[in-house]
């Protein structure tokens, strides 16, 4: 970066402008199937949330005061819909950038008759910052995030000290950040970041990983991991301050 663009960047940051330098995803322009497109058309008005709406009022969004769980990067949404269906007394918000995934999730939710689920098609980092009220969430879920295998890409991993600090503000005290990955090196990275993060307590008895909780359905990526003989690591950290 040259000196003048560096100065422009610093000035914008001082003015409080939101600048993203590294993203955790590469937008793939996958084609929508007919079913996915039809589901978006049919369900967006009732289940879609827009980043441009700004700060959400959950009572207004869901029509009740039940606990709210946010899932970041739900992929095709199968496990998210299953969780929402299995837990009707909680509200779920899924955030995903991949449009076919959003379509697939809405299709599944519609088929299953799920009503306690809303979705964003947007970058979760921006949705958390701009749409989710502080201290409002019972749980934040991040299952099988893109592992960015190469060392030079590790900065793209979504779990970073700065992100975790912003995310903590969105959990209520006692709220839980639940991560899972089938990539050992990412699990170690998650653990390292969380151990140094202020205001969290590890829920693991052994101060590292927790057994896979029954309420987390097997995802497509996990099933694939099992076939490849990978392990899976779950991490659960409670907000304490
Ligand atoms: C490896 S996939 C896992 C999907 C799903 N959780 C599962 O277990 O099957 C990771 C997903 O996270 C999404 N993703 C990555 N960064 C994101 C971000 N900043 N905001 C929203 N979604 C994101 C990607 O588009 C991708 O679908």
From TrEMBL:
The gene is trmB. It catalyses: guanosine(46) in tRNA + S-adenosyl-L-methionine = N(7)-methylguanosine(46) in tRNA + S-adenosyl-L-homocysteine. Catalyzes the formation of N(7)-methylguanine at position 46 (m7G46) in tRNA. It comes from Pseudoalteromonas rubra. S-adenosyl-L-methionine binds at residues 71, 96, 123, 146. Keywords: Methyltransferase, S-adenosyl-L-methionine, Transferase, tRNA processing. Pathway: tRNA modification; N(7)-methylguanine-tRNA biosynthesis. One of its GO terms (molecular function) is tRNA (guanine(46)-N7)-methyltransferase activity. Belongs to the class I-like SAM-binding methyltransferase superfamily. TrmB family. Substrate binds at residues 150, 182, 219-222. SUPFAM superfamilies: S-adenosyl-L-methionine-dependent methyltransferases. Pfam families: Methyltransf_4 (PF02390). Its EC number is 2.1.1.33. GO terms for cellular component: tRNA methyltransferase complex. This is tRNA (guanine-N(7)-)-methyltransferase.
